[in-house]
């Protein structure tokens, strides 16, 4: 039983909050009242959690020696020896094949996105994470794929940039502004993570790409990414198609997005946090309140 609990821990459930992006599709499409689509989004969420977990297993095996000299990662199930090598191998194969097979039952589009997500993560683990800037681009693209996956669950065709009346039947609309916001928001979090990692002892030994970064460079990249997030999200809320679907009150949500970005800057620069965005979201109460108010505002606008 302890070995199976170690396997579950190695799947990193705390990181699964990232996959909540899959629900954004059904929410922003104003179909949150359709329990069938909500249940389908729940399946997609679980599939991406399992695929993410499989990648974490693969990554932990690949980085085993580095993790053993890391002050925190040395306590991970594989690095500490709590997860047997045999169970790791069987778990990785079964979880990967099972989740991809499950994704096929939710439609071709979702399967293609899920497979792309898995392969991109393999590429990230094997090569991209060692390439300066591209490592963070890989992380950000994963967030975009999560958002696209949520929309892919709803329709046969995915359409970007076409207004009502110009899209084929059975299509779902992908807002280009939200995709850009998601990409740069993920860049912001990833650069903050790199900056936090750079402060750790022996940082460059456990993540080789950090040798190419410096605090000054990361400060500039953080500022650039945050600025683009605020700009593109504001444009999304002001865009005529958005106002037509969600109403003018969606503009209020800019307050909470701006607060969230500024609060994160505070945590990174004044509290020396940011090396683990998922954990930070779960333990910083003001940030949680800001996110909750944003969610409430969006749901009110979507429900009108």
Task: Summarize the structure in words.
It is a single chain. With 304 residues, the chain is an all-alpha fold. It has two domains: 1-160, Orthogonal Bundle (Tetracycline Repressor, domain 2), CATH 1.10.357; 175-304. The chain contains 15 helices and two strands. It has helices spanning 2-10, 24-28, 35-62, 64-67, 77-80, 85-104, 108-126, 134-152, 176-198, 203-206, 215-238, 240-246, 253-269, 277-283, 285-303, and strands at 157-160, 171-174. It has a two-stranded parallel sheet. Helix 3 runs antiparallel to helix 6, helix 3 packs parallel to helix 7 and helix 11 packs antiparallel against helix 13 (253-269). The mean pLDDT is 86.
Overview in brief:
The chain has 304 residues and is mostly helical.
List keywords for this structure.
304 residues; mainly alpha; Tetracycline Repressor, domain 2; 2 domains; two-stranded parallel ribbon; 15 helices; 2 strands; 69% helix
The overall pLDDT average reads 86
Form type: globular
SS element count, helices: 15
The CATH H-level homologous superfamily of the largest domain: UbiA prenyltransferase
Total of domains = 2
Indicate the radius of gyration in whole angstroms: 20 Å
Strand arrangement, major sheet: 1-2
**What sequence of helices (H) and strands (E) makes up the elements?**
HHHHHHHHEEHHHHHHH
Structural class: mainly alpha
Main sheet, how many strands, which sense, barrel?
2 strands, parallel
Strand content: under 5%
Distance between the termini: 49 Å
This entry's quaternary arrangement is single chain
Uncertain parts: none
Tally of DSSP β-strands: 2
Reading off the top of the CATH hierarchy, the class of the largest domain is best stated as Mainly Alpha
Helix content: 55-70%
